[in-house]
Glycosyl transferase (Desulfoferula mesophila), 453 residues
Amino acid sequence: MPSFAQTHSRVTSYYILQDKQDILQQLVHAARWKKPVLIVPALASEFTDPENRPVFENIVAELSGAKYLAHVIFGLDQASEDDVRTCIDICQKGGLKNYIIQWNDGPAISGIYEMLEDGGFDLSRRGKGRNVFMGFGVAMALGATCVGLLDADIKTFQRRQLDRLFYPVLVHNYPFSKAFYARWNGQRLFGRVKRLLLDPLLLALKRKFSEGSEEKMLRLVDFLLSFDYQLSGEVCLDMWLLRKMRYSLNWGVEIFTLIEVYRKASHVAQVEFTRKSFDHKHQRVSTDDPKSGLHKMSLDIIQTLLHALIVEEGLEVGEEFFRDLALTYESIAEEIIKKYSDNAEFNNLSYDRDAEESMVYDVLSRAIVQTADHLSAPSHIAEKMLRLTASYEEFKPFVDQGLQQTILLLEERLREESLEVRNLPSWERIMWKLPEVSSHIVDALEEDKQRFK
């Protein structure tokens, strides 16, 4: 019997109990007085590369059957004018009529980015986060009532999966829903960052907070653990929530989104996307390169989580906290790896236990220590300076003038900067400062529409 347990106070779990159940008509009915919009961020290579193009073509063909969507926004990065025409051709051949092209490198949308930069909003860091953030602005300018996100590299995508994602928000009026699924391809397990980093790290934090009676932090960690797949990129948000949420530009975006949801919504949903194998593009580990692959992703996730706990939630930590956290993480990760190994053997799946353990010790545990060192360095320096200035009479005139207070203030500033995460403000804040931005976005879309007519 499939699971249908509801064990989380703030998260409703939607399970697939009847795979043949078609909820399309319910969505079409609910959309009569609402305006659901889907955003598909994509690199040009995801539809121009011959190896990737069939995956993108299948997504477009499946989306043509999602009759409840008012618009499908394709946010295109690193795309030339010819690439945009290729995307339009795929949409037309796939029978998708309600598509909108958000050409990020074109002169029209580039003008919107410049307008935001001039308004004091730093969007200089290019990537998926920036692409999606602009997609939210486009959806708002088009009058969307709820917005969904879908990756452009899902090899096993079917329209019914998207139907399930939109259902809690569109039909049951939840403010937020997030997909969950098993990351495997029928032969081996994937989702390494979730399995080997995030879950054991959250469990390690939970153990630490339980021992220290940190109830405020414990509630946040419990909320994150309520989700079966915290790092899934497929989400749907009601517009009132989306307007209020801040947004992250790095690999920590999924965790930061859940933290923002925790702060701003009382009850949300997670939806079983599929019971079959789910597969899309995989990142390499990059053991020796902390600026790429899963290594970079792990650092961003750890930094985002610790920033939320320490800088924003006010968690007080010392040097021993990070040392204990890393040791506890390794212990829990070892236990979890054995469980995955046992489960893989039970299902006759390929599982490289040595490689998984190596990733924990050579990449993920080191990433925790790296982030901790980066955070605690200002405290070490300040402690030495305070001890030095208190030990010698020569410093007394400067101490009387507030030298030690200045050291403490500087320590606090450097501590915050050392865990600085460049998060974007909410679109509500942007529209307050630049009330004309929506009309400029509509003009930019119309300009590109005429360009590619």
The chain has two domains: 11-187+231-281+423-451, 192-227+283-421.
